[in-house]
Amino acid sequence: MVSGHQTNNSSADIYANVMQGKILFQGCQLPTLIWNQIKILIVSNKDEFDIERDTLMTDTLPKLQQYFLTQGIYVNFIDCNLNWDLDLSRNPYHVLRYMKELDDAYKTSAGVFLLTLVGNKYGSVVLPIELSTTDFNNIKNIASDLNKDVKLLERWYLLDDKLLPPAYKLKDPDDEFSNLLSRTVSTYDISIRESQEWNDVYVNLADLFVSVLHEKPSLKSKHDTSSMYDIQLLSSVEMLFNYAAMLSPSGCMCVLRQFDGFNEKNKGNEAYIDLLTGSNRLDKYRQEKLKRFRESIANKLSKNEDNTLKIEDNRILFNIPWKENGDFQTDDADHQRYLRTLNAAIFLRIKFLCERHIDLSISSHLKYPDQILYNETLMHSTHYSKLSSNTCLGFENFIENNQSFKQWFSSANTDEHYPLMIIGNRASGKTLLCTKLVQYLLNTLGKNVQCIMRYFNLTSRSRNIAEVFNSISTQMKTLQKVSSITDDQKFSNIESYQSILKSLSENHTPLILMIDGIEEATSPSQYTSSIIFYQTLLQLLPPKVYVILSVTRNVHTNPNSDVKLREIFERLERTQCIIELPFTNETISIHELNLYLKSELNLIKRNVTDSVLQALSKCIYQQIDKKSQIFFLLRLVLNESYFSYLSQRKKKLDLTELNIEEIFNAYIDHCENKFGSKICALIFNYISSSQSAIHELELLDMLSCNNEFFLEYFQKDLPKYLRFPPSLWIAMKYLLGPLLSVRYFDSKVVICWSHSFIRRHMKQKYLKRVEDIRFAHRDMSNYFLEAFIESKPLVDMSRNVQLRGDLARRFILQQPLLYSETAYNYRRLHELWYQLMHSGDIDRLKEYTVCCFEYLLAKIHGLSIEQLLWEIDIICSNILDADVLIVQTILKNTVHIVSNDPILLAGEIILRLRNIKSYYNEHIESLLVQAHDWCESCNIPVFVPLSSWISATPPLIITTLPCSGGAFKIAATTFNQHVFCTTRTNEIAMYHIPSKKLVKTFSGHTSLITSIQLTHDSKFLVSTSTDRTIKLFDLNSGELENNFQINQNEILCMTISHNNQLIVVGTRDRLIIVCHFETGEIEHSIEQHTDAVTGVGLTQDDALLISG
C-alpha cells in the first residue's frame, strides 16, 4: 500500500527514476503500481451472515462496479462462502489457499482487499497442519489421560520424515476424500457422504485439541507442554484478518454486528452463536476467544500507517435487535434500514479508500500519454524485479567463462558492436537469462547507467514489434543527456532511436536495452512491415550501448525470413554475438544443481537425505543436454500439486526420464479427479480461447453465464444466486500451479497458460471439435457484447427447472465499448474481434467491429491504426469477406492521414464508400451511415466530403490455392471460408481459402470419387465413388460417421434433400436409388433410364427429382 502524499519534486524524481531504470538497482524500492482492479475477499463464518452477504452481492457490488466503471476499474468480491458447501474453517489447507489469495489481492488491488464480517459467533477453529514430534506425543498422552480416542489423531496426523525437521502432518481431506470437491452426476452422492464423514472427523479432532490445550491444564503438569503454546486454534476469520492486517491494516475493513437481547436460550440461534457440540449450552471457550478477537480488531484498526487516514473508520459497528427464531423478514422496517445503512457504509468506505489509494500515485497526476508510458514501463520493471530473484543455473559459470559474452561486453565498452542475441526453444530459459544479464550489467556498470526493458506479450502494448519499438523510442526521449525530439512519426522514431544512441554514447552515458522474445506476437502477414524495426534493432551499435535481444531458435533459420535479416544473423554468428540455450552440463555443475534442488524442495518443505538428493541431481544432470525444457519440467514436478498427485496415486517422485506429456497429463488427471472432467473442460476452454489472457473476473462471469456448469455442479438444488463459486476457482487455480502465468493488460492482472505449448496441449485435449471451439468463443463474444447483463434464462425440463428474469440474473460486469467520453474499454477492444472471428459469426464480427465506426475510431484513437491493421490482417488470414477487405483497403490507403488525426476517419470513410456501397452488403451501408451520424453529432469541425472522385468499381479478389493433389470435384462451405476438392489419390482435401492452408484430408475411398456435397446444415460431407460406397464425414470431429454400400455397381452422381433426410444417387447400371441419410436404408429404387445415370437433382422443396 502507498503511504504518504508525494510532493511535486518527489513525483518528478520518481517519474524520472522509472523512465531511466534507476529503480532497478539493488536496494531500490519500486513505486506502487496502481492497478485498474479492486479485488476484495469477503470473509465470514459460514451461514452467519447470509442476509448481509446477499446485500453485498445484489446491491453493494453492482453499485461499486457501476461507479468505478467510468474509470475502467474492475471491482470483484471474492466471497469464500458463495455457493460453496464446505466450511472454510474445517480444512486448514483451504485457509492456506485464502492466505495466498489475500497476498495476491494486497499486491494487485487498488485500495481495500479484505472485508471481514464479525458477529456473535467465533466459529470453528482451524486444525494445525503440522505438529512437532514433541507436541504430537504430548497431545496424544494428555488426550489419553482425558479418556479421548487418540486413534483418529494417529490416523490423520502422520509422521513425515521428509520435512525438516520431521513432523506430524495432517492429511489433506481433499486428497483423502477424492470426491469431496466433485459434484458430477456419478459422484454427487459420494461427495455428500464424504463431506459428512470429514465433518465428523473434524468435530472429534477439534474437540480433542480444545480439550487438551485449554480445558484440563492440571493434566499438563505431567508433560513438558511449553512448545504447545504456539498452537493457537484460531478461527479462519481471525486467521485471515490477522494475516491481512499484517500486510496492511489500511486495506482491511471490518463490519462488527452485535445482536441486542441475544443469548444461547434464544430459538433459531444455531448459526449466530457458539454452542457446545450436541447441546444448547454456550461454548464459553470460543466466546472468550471472540471477545479477544474483537479487541484485537479495534487495536489493529487504530494504528495509522500515516497521519492522513483515520484507519479506525475501517471498522463499521452495528447493534441490531434480535428477532425470535432468527426470522429477519423482508418487510421488517428496522432490519431493512440496517441493511441499507450497511450497504451505504461499505460502499462509501471502499470508494473513499480506493480513490485515496489511486490519488496517491503519481501516475494519476500525469498527462494521459505520460501516464500510459509510465505504467507500461513500471509493469515491465515489476516483472523484472520478480524474475531477478530467481536462480539461473550456470549463470556464474557463463559470466566467467563464456568467451562470446566476454568478447561482446569488452567490445561494447569501447567499440562499435552488434547486439547480443539469445537464441533458444520455448521454455529454454531465455527470459531468465536476459533478466540476469541486465542485473549483471546494472551491478557492473554502476549508478550512471540507464536501462530500458520490454518483455514481449507481457502487456497489451507489447504484442507486436512496431508497438514495442515506438514505446521504447518514446521512453528514450525521457533519458538523461538526451535533447528533446518532437517528431512522432514512425520513421522519425527510428531516426530518433539512432540519434539518441549516438548522443548517449558520445556523452559516455551507458544504456542497457533489453527486449525479450521479439518475435512472440508478430503475425506472418505483418512480417514485411516489421522488417524495418528488426533491422534497426540488429544494426551496428555505438560504444556504451548494451542491447540484449532474445528470439526462438527458428526465427533466424526460417526460409521466409527477409534476406537482409538472414544476412544480419549470419554476421552476428561470425562476430560471436549469439548465445544458444539451453546451457549444457558443461556450464551447469552437478554441485550447483544439487544446491538448486535442495532449495526448491525446502520451499515446499520437502526434506531428502544427501544420498537421495545426489541421486535426483544425477538424474537431472543426465537430461540437461537432451531436453531444452528441463528446468521448466523441474518446476512442474517440484510443486505441491504434483506431490499431491503422487501421494494420491501412491507413487514416488521419479526424475529418471522426465516426459512433458506425462507431467501435463498428471496435472490434468489430478484436476479432473478432484473437480470432474466437464467442469475442468469449461474452465480450461475459456482460458485457452482468450486471445492472450483472461481476467479472473471475466472468467468467473463467463462461467456464471454457463448453464452447463450449474446443471452439472448443482445436481439437487440450484443456488439462490447463479454465480460460479469463487472457492472452486481458487482451489483449481492453486492446483494448476506453474501451468498458469500472469500478464498485465490495461493495468489489470490477467491469467493465461504459462507457455504456448501448454495452450496447444489444452486445445488438443479439450477443443478438438469445431463445435466446442465455436461455443467457447461464442460465450466470450456474448460476454463482451453484454448479452446477459440483465439475466440469462436457465431451463431444464428434465429437472423441471425454469429460471427467468431476476431469478436468472448472473450479476456480471458491464463491458461497454466506452467507459466514458475519454476512457476506452481496452479489454473489449482487444478481445471482441478475436472472439467473434473464431466463433465463426462473420455477421456479428462486421456489425460490432470491422464495420462499426465507433469501434474503428476507438481502436485508432485509443491504440493506433497500426494495431488495428495488424488485427485486420489476422482477420483476413482467417476469413474471406469482401466487406472486411474493403475496410482494410480504406485503412491502408489512409494510414498516414488518420494516424496524425483520428478525427479524419469519418470523412475518409464517407469519401471512399459513397460510390461503391451498392456493391457490398448492408454492413458497408451501415458503416457509411454511422460515419455520417458521427459527423453530425460531433461538436468540433470535421471534414465531410459532399462528393467522391474515388473509383466506383471495386477490385476483383482472386485467391489461388496450391492443390498439389489435383482438384476434380469441388464443393464450398456455406460461409465461403473452406473448399473441398477430390484428389487423384481418391481423397478429399479441405482447404482454408483465406490462409490457403490444407486443413484436413478425408480418406476411405478406394477408387475414383464421383461426387461430393455438404449437407444443407453444413454438419456432414457426403461423397460417392466408383468403389460403390457412400461415405458420410462428420465435419465437427473430422471422423467418418457412416459408410453405406447400397448397390453392387458404381455410383456416378449424388444429391441430398434440403431437409438432410435423404440421399439420392445415380448408378452405372441405370438405377436411381433414394436412401435414408442416417441408416442407408433404401426407400426407392427407380429404373427408368436406358444407360448410366450421370446426374441427379432436387427442386428447392424436394418435391421434384430430375435425372439425366
Automatic annotation (TrEMBL):
Transcription regulation recorded as keyword: no
Extent of the signal sequence: none
Positions of WD repeats: 1002-1043
InterPro entries: NACHT-WD_repeat, NPHP3-like_N, NWD1/2-like_WH, P-loop_NTPase, Quinoprotein_ADH-like_sf, WD40/YVTN_repeat-like_dom_sf, WD40_rpt
Domain Nephrocystin 3-like N-terminal span(s) in chain numbering: 400-529
Keyword annotations of the record: Repeat, WD repeat
Domain NWD1/2-like winged helix-turn-helix: 653-773
Superkingdom in the source lineage: Eukaryota
The name this protein goes by in its record: NACHT domain-containing protein
Lineage: Eukaryota, Metazoa, Spiralia, Gnathifera, Rotifera
